Amino acid sequence: MLVGVKLLDRTRKISRLLHNNSSFVVVFNDICKCVGDILSANVLVVSAKGKVLGVYEKDDIPSLQEMLTDNVGEHIDADLNERFLSVLSTKENSNLTTLGFEKASDSDYTAVILPIDFAGGRLGTTFIYRLKKEFSVDDIILSEYANTVIELEMMRSIYEENVEEKRQMAAIDAAISALSDSEKKAVMYTLDMLNEDMEGTIVVSHISKTYGITRSIIVNAIHKMESAGILLAQSKGMRGTFIKVVNPAIFTEITSQKDLND
């Protein structure tokens, strides 16, 4: 009975992460830390493409740097990720040498590999590992519960991204429809002047002279884009106007506009 109560208390710690997360930003590091502290293990959550979404490393457990990375946003070894993706159900107490870790010390580790699946699609993998001590049945149950939370949070993240993308595209469509043909061209030429960070200083008179569009049309186009929340524009006096793209979806729409005109 005591063991069951202990397991229940541990799962509740993970549940609180869902209840306490009122924002739309999913912080997988928080989930990894919660699970890692409970299981005394290092935890890694990676996407289906091997990108690290969340990571937690305990001070007393050396991290595996041979094929992993402890930096969110970076990618793990491609071959290791392929082995992760080949795991179709929870694989407990796996020796790391079977995953391709070749260093002798890696044989001292044991791991749990959990596929992150949702609606028939593979979203990623949860990788939990620690030294010496194998994972008990209760540890496996808790790992699978935590993985379910990760699946839900990952789906929520994807949903929010889709909603935001649709919102951005709706704003783009409305803004583009309010432009005249000449203003559309002015926006195209303005965006062509920006750097890879989607920002830069443009000189209206230079665009006007180069492309044969009057200054007033260029200024009006920029003002309309700014009013729609697509661009930020700040006058730099004689140096020109600083432009920064706030809604990057504009590039997709502008590209399609170019294709139609070509």
Which secondary structure elements does this structure contain, and how are they paired or packed?
Layout (H helix, E strand, L loop, with lengths): L1 H19 L7 H12 L2 E6 L4 E5 L21 H9 L4 E5 L13 E10 L2 E11 L5 H41 L3 H12 L6 E4 L1 H8 L3 H13 L3 E5 L5 E5 L4 H12 L1
Antiparallel strand pairs: 1-2, 1-5, 3-4, 4-5, 6-8, 7-8
Helix pairs in contact: 1-2, 1-4, 2-4, 5-7, 5-8
Q: What do these coordinates show?
A:
By secondary structure, this protein is of the alpha+beta class. It has eight helices and eight strands. The strands form two sheets. Strands 2-1-5-4-3 form a five-stranded antiparallel sheet, covered by helices on one side. The protein has a three-stranded antiparallel sheet with strand order 6-8-7. Helix 1 runs antiparallel to helix 2 (28-39). 27% of the residues are buried.
